[in-house]
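queue> holo job accepted (phosphoenolpyruvate)
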Amino acid sequence: MNRRYRKTVIAGNWKMNMTATETKKFAEDLKKIMPRAKWCDTLICVPACNISTAMKAFKDLRISVGAENVYFEEKGAYTGEVSADMLKDLGVKYVIVGHSERRHTVAAESNELIAEKAKVALANGVKVILCIGELLEDRESGKTMEVCKAQLQAVVDAVEEKDWENIVIAYEPVWAIGTGKTATPDVAEETHSQIRAFMASAVSPAVAENVRIIYGGSVSTKNCKDLMAKEDIDGFLVGGASLKPDFVDIINC
Ligand code: PEP
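queue> job finished
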């Protein structure tokens, strides 16, 4: 399928940044330069405590609000955790699972745990942004696709074919996140097309054609156009650059 049939996704990931007050101010600043995002699925994933504030603040901008994390159990004695049902009840459309910071930095989340999180989110009607990506040493030792395939296979095993309609794959090479070292458009495209080929064999050719694969890793106003021109890049997951009003330029590109 030609890329233009897959709707572009531009997602921000605010991580542990922005208070509720700053969220409102950011939305006001955005409104001055971009009254409404209408060309693509645009969302910003915010800390759980700011979801309600962000929902109100971004409503007129047509920016959806996503969550940055979800727990894998439905409910119970899990102090401090947030369930998929709670996110759904707030009106959250997407949740990030498998971000490299949760796989490698703040928690040692396994491929299987991440698959459980994806499953519970989908069962509760929350779409999933599934982050995958290799560490620098994996790339240097030629293991990029081995790592990405293992991360994807855990989710392939946990969900049904129809669930892939509600999953966006975010390819984020860990060495490019927050480092300023973006994968070149050719390097990113090579991995995106290999991921699509893997999805064709692991799930089905139809899923491979339709699933949106977005790129993340130091996306900026400077590199977004060249990355977006690639056939298998269907949008972006943006960290640092989504915290500034010129995030609008990435949406517009
Ligand atoms: C991210 O956190 O998912 C990310 C891609 O961050 P950055 O854009 O800052 O590299």
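queue> The chain has a mean pLDDT of 95.
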